[in-house]
């Protein structure tokens, strides 16, 4: 698995498939494997580039403050290294913040933008949750941490599937590339320190905004605000799934994404 040295860190990335390049940027507490359930559909039509954001997975985890703009710079330099001039960009949650900053800083690099479970600026409740998620890992073990986080991510229907949540918690506990408590703190503060509200009008590429109807962490109103502020933006609200719709509803998500991308190439 390849890594590249950029911005003072080793950044892990993975490339699969063929076709127009599609970049996937994961969110808080997640590395490139978070996209796994969508990969069979996406690689059938696209060259898919995934990465581990700084601090996550197999990328370096420097113990100093991070910013969303810094992580967007990491992505831009990765694209330069790979030799990709233009790419479709897809971000989930914190990854969608990074995607917004990427297109704002490097508009010529981005063919289209897809923002899932996204926002421009969080409200007070959201900010309180993210602040807590950054502070908590230093005070509880990983199993309890996941038990605190998961109810904000997954729906009642998902919880009702026998053994599903327990299996995910067990997977997280045994995952060999767990983030450090300091990384989660730095990521939480990067999320809180970012605001694209006044700059969304400068995003001019075709944009898809997608959110689960049952998302209680980044509710539909956040996505509606994005779609209203970004020129040429389209919003899709999925009836199935909450914030973790990449795990709960991967087929529905992949279908919307591929339909959006297909219309751009006609």
TrEMBL record:
Entry keywords, A to Z: Hydrolase
GO terms under biological process: glycerolipid catabolic process
InterPro entries documented for this protein: AB_hydrolase, AB_hydrolase_1, AB_hydrolase_fold
Keyword Hydrolase listed: yes
GO molecular function terms attached to this record: triacylglycerol lipase activity
Pfam hit, one: Abhydrolase_1
Domain AB hydrolase-1: 21-250
Keyword Nucleus: no
Transmembrane region(s): none
Top-level taxon of origin: Bacteria
Name of the protein this chain belongs to: Alpha/beta hydrolase
Organism: Komarekiella delphini-convector SJRDD-AB1
């Amino acid at each position: 698995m390849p890594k590249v040295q950029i911005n003072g860190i080793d950044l892990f990335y993975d490339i699969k498939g063929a076709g127009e390049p599609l970049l996937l940027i994961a969110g808080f507490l997640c590395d490139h494997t978070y996209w796994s359930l969508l990969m069979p559909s996406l690689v059938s039509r696209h060259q898919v580039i995934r990465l581990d954001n700084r601090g996550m997975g197999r990328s370096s985890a420097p113990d100093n403050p991070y910013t969303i703009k810094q992580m967007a710079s990491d992505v831009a330099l990765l694209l330069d290294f790979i030799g990709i001039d233009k790419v479709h960009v897809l971000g989930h949650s914190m990854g969608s913040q990074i995607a917004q900053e990427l297109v704002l800083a490097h508009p010529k690099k981005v063919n289209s933008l897809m923002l899932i479970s996204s926002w421009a600026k969080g409200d007070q409740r959201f900010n309180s949750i993210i602040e807590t998620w950054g502070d908590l890992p230093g005070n509880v073990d990983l199993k309890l941490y996941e038990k605190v986080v998961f109810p904000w991510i997954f729906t009642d229907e998902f919880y009702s599937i026998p053994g599903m949540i327990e299996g995910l918690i067990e997977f997280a506990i045994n995952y060999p590339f767990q983030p450090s408590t300091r990384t989660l703190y730095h990521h939480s503060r990067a999320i809180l320190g970012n605001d694209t509200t006044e700059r969304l009008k400068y995003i001019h590429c075709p944009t898809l905004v997608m959110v689960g109807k049952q998302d209680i962490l980044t509710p539909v109103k956040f996505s509606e605000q994005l779609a209203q502020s970004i020129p040429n933006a389209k919003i899709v609200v999925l009836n199935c799934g909450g914030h973790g719709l990449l795990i709960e509803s991967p087929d529905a998500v992949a279908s919307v994404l591929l339909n959006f991308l297909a219309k751009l190439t006609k």
